User: Fold Light-harvesting protein B-800-850 alpha chain from Rhodoblastus acidophilus.
Amino acid sequence: MNQGKIWTVVNPSVGLPLLLGSVTVIAILVHLAVLSNTKWFPAYWQGGLKKAAAIETTIVG
Assistant:
């Protein structure tokens, strides 16, 4: 590890939670950006809602 000396400045019990927390926050922000800026992602989460609606109308109609 070429950055091993960082732990002489920052205690690992403080640095590791900060590192993992920042990675988590970045991942959540990326997912929210994809969710709010695309049209296909929310439709993907609905799981084929259009196919189910089409089948329902043919059965009911």
